[in-house]
Specification:
The protein contains 16 helices and nine strands.
Length: 354
């Protein structure tokens, strides 16, 4: 049986570099419960191992670094064994927290699709190295969920309210946009990944030489096209610097440009509940510590397991693939403050009733 994760310690000029290879290319390296637990345990071991100077993570194959959590399995678990679905989120979030607090250089090679949980296993680390093949997104609102895994922390730190835009639309962006927003730290050619690794292994550095490693990676940096969102920066900031999703849509509609109306159309396809919960999540996360945001988001994730929209969204996207989810409620106006508040105040995990 093929291992879903491959761990190794690569001999370096000084000590070793721990390597993690996500080894599910046929599933776009999607994360399972056991993968999250194993990665966390390995990070904790390497953190206290003086021989290991840094950690490198990459995905097997050329299509994806990591497409996120395995939502097909999560869908089945949520319907048959909600405790197992809850365990997945616990393990994933504990892994994300271990990465955020990891005190050694963590170099993520983001070559290809990097979405959802794929962001959680990379963005919280010190060095996020994209290639020209990066496709980054937090697409959860499209499946009746919300941008989780600490997204409240990094989306609210994007300039010009771009994090609100990304979280609410689920838009896919390239390496140049991700770099401009601070989501990745470097861009290199996909053809130079092995050369970069060789350089890291043959150049002496200490476990706390974060800036030195940044300089090494900089030497491989390549120029990219201008960020595609750059022409819309002012409009995005204007339209999303409001108090609610409804106001953002109203401003986009009033702008009446082809681009702004296309964004309105996109938002109208998203789960109304997801949109409103995401707005509240980002509003709160902007003033929270990382750990507080993770606790809030874990609780929100639990509550989504008791909603119609999450299971309907996954059904439409990956089970039946008809791409026609039927959201309940179907309109933003029907998502009341009481409904939203329950995602943030309810602490227990209710049993789903179909």
């Amino acid at each position: 049986m093929t291992q879903d994760i491959l761990f190794s310690e690569l001999a370096a000029q000084q000590g070793a570099i721990g390597q993690i290879v996500l080894n599910r290319p046929q599933a776009l390296n999607a994360l399972s419960t056991s993968m999250c637990q194993t990665i966390r345990e390995q990070l904790q071991q390497w953190q206290t191992d003086a021989h290991v100077k840094a950690v490198l993570i990459r995905g097997k194959g050329e299509r994806a670094f990591c497409a996120g959590g395995d939502i097909r399995v999560l869908y089945q678990q949520g319907r048959e064994n909600i405790a197992a679905a809850k365990t997945f989120f616990q393990q994933e979030y504990q892994m994300n927290a271990a990465l955020f607090h990891f005190n050694k250089p963590y170099i993520a090679l983001l070559d290809g699709i990097t979405m959802g949980g794929g962001a959680g296993i990379s963005i919280h680390g010190s060095h996020r190295v994209a290639t020209e093949r990066l496709v980054f997104a937090m697409p959860e609102v499209g499946i009746g969920f919300f941008p989780d895994i600490g997204a409240g922390h990094f989306l609210t730190r994007c300039p010009h309210r771009m994090g609100y835009y990304l979280g609410l639309t689920g838009d896919r962006i390239s390496a140049s946009d991700a770099k401009a927003l601070g989501l990745v730290t470097h861009i290199i050619s996909s053809q130079q990944q092995e050369d970069l690794i060789k350089t890291l292994l043959t150049t002496p550095f200490d476990a706390h030489d974060f800036e030195f490693i940044s300089g090494l990676i900089d030497s491989f940096s390549v120029a990219m096209e201008a960020p595609k969102l750059a022409p819309y920066t002012a409009l995005i900031e204007k339209c999303f610097s409001v108090a609610s999703v409804e106001e953002a849509i109203a401003r986009l509609t009033a702008d009446a440009s082809t681009w702004s109306l296309s964004i309105v159309k996109t938002l109208q396809t998203r789960s109304p509940t997801s949109l409103k919960v995401t707005w509240e999540q980002l509003k709160r996360a902007a003033h929270q510590t990382f750990d507080a945001t993770m606790q809030m988001e874990l609780n929100i994730a639990y509550q989504f397991l008791n909603t119609h929209d999450f299971f309907e969204g996954v059904r439409a996207a990956v089970i039946d693939k008809d791409q026609t989810p039927h959201w309940q409620p179907s309109q933003l106006a029907a998502v009341t403050p009481t409904i939203i508040d329950a995602f943030f105040t309810t602490k227990e995990l209710p049993k789903r009733g179909d």
